[in-house]
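Q: Got a minute? One more chain.
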Amino acid sequence: MISLKDKLILKALHKQFNNQVPSLFSEIAYKGKDKFLFFVFINRADESFESTSYDIIENDNSIDFILHKNDKTYKLNVEKIYNFKSYFYVEMNDLGEIHDVVEFVF
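A: Always. Here it is, folded:
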């Protein structure tokens, strides 16, 4: 089975080659019976951001993740198919380098 890090790197390369950067997507990871939801933001390696903030809004059947990067806003709606133990935000560049990981525990 492929590791989560390798899977994210492959997705980053796919987004880069298909000219889909910047991009926000989700990924589910499993550790035993626990399920974790990752919100992954891929940006160009030559672009930097000064300010970052995020909002997570849980509804009965979905989760909205809203990412604010400088003057841009990215929104992702994920169907809530599991009760996740925690959520993570991962920021990486289109070269597959991870720059930031934040865990949200509710």
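A: The helical segments are 4-17.
Q: Perfect, thanks.
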